[in-house]
Amino acid sequence: MKDVRILPVVSRREQKAFLEVPAFVMSGDPNFIAPLHMEVAQRLDPKRHPFFANGQAAFWVAIGGNGNPIGRISAQINNSYQTRYGNAEGHFGSIVGIDDADLYKNLLETAEVWLKTNGAVSAVGPFTLSINEESGLLVEGFDTPPMLMMGHDPLWSGDHIKAAGYKPVKDLLAYVYDSSQGPPSRVLSFGKKFKSIEGANIRPFNKRQFKQDLAAILNVFNDAWSENWGYVPMSSGEINSFAHAMRAIADYDLIFIAEIAGRPVGMAVSLPNINEALAGLNGARGLGILRFLWRLKVGGVKSARVLLMGVTKASQADIALGPVISMALISALAEAHGRKGYERMELSWILDSNAPMRRIAEMGGAKIYKTYRIFRKDFA
Fold first, then answer.
1. Which fold has domain 177-377?
2. What tens digit of pLDDT does each residue of 160-212 get?
3. For the purposes of burial, counting CB atoms within 10 Å of the CB of 109, is it exposed (0-12), middle (13-18) or buried (19 or more)?
4. Alpha-carbon distance 57 to 25, whole Å?
5. CA 45, CA 26: separation in Å to the nearest integer?
6. pTM exceeds 0.90 for this model
7. Contacts of 357 (CB under 8 A, 6+ apart)
8. Domain 5-170 CATH (choose: 3.40.50.1950, 3.40.630.30, 3.40.50.720, 3.40.50.11420)
9. Rounded distance, CA 70 to CA 64, Å?
10. Are 333 and 345 contacting, i.e. CB atoms less than 8 angstroms apart?
């Protein structure tokens, strides 16, 4: 494209333009919902976002000849990832632009130059900013709005990324469940089977012992997910950020801890889908925050996202116990969502290669309705 400038995000002017890109590019898409403005702005601030305690990133915005913000991208080095996997892989994210292959190519090349300069031998993404936040590019399921902390991308993005030399490496699946119908009988039977085990119990999160229960959830997460593709442990800063988000929006009746003899063996964290309350508010800036909070706390939302779920590796190793814990958690989630009036429950994301978890989700009555893709390019 002619007369396009790709500018590093340095001043408030570039930051404002960076934040405005998705709304400009997807202004005609009825399913696009601008995420909470203050959360996206935090990602650009090394002093406020926990990623920067052990990583570095750069951001760019593309400005068209008429002054409109028409594209953007980030590039980042995740030191925790590189240390864990012993490689020099770099990441990119936040990529969105108008329907123009050259624009995507130029954005990606800009990120690649920065990554190479910082010692990376490849670019993998999109991640915003790490795999513990928004991950993947939407490639299937454009006909419905995204849920909490899940992306919504233009139809053309995947093709333009591939045209720039990137290859798909992993698909992340989002399942949806109609919680208004109640859990299937076979799911309920697993719940009863788990409760029949001596000392077994599934209980909701106790906010009176917030720190203890949060620690239990994160310990199970870090154990259960440790062998997953791309896994990186949550840092203390990420944990604190997660805790802050939970306090602000959580419905504690939708968060469960599975225990045997008082020891946590599984967990499931579902949060109200705040995107419902954000629809049409352009990121809820200024007085929009009050309208957002009213919708969330008074009007209520009808959908929720199960964003964390796991069973300890020791329990997974017991082929008779692991699936029972997982299905019992699904049963508790389905029952609670239905009882509290949530009509839809999203389970996301699940790796396409995670056959056991996919089987459990499908046995519980959930169906795939969105696919997000990770791409990779190795530098010559």
1. Aminopeptidase (3.40.630)
2. 999 999 999 999 999 999 987 777 777 778 888 898 999 999 999 999 999 99
3. middle
4. 23
5. 25
6. yes
7. 326, 350, 351
8. 3.40.630.30
9. 6
10. yes
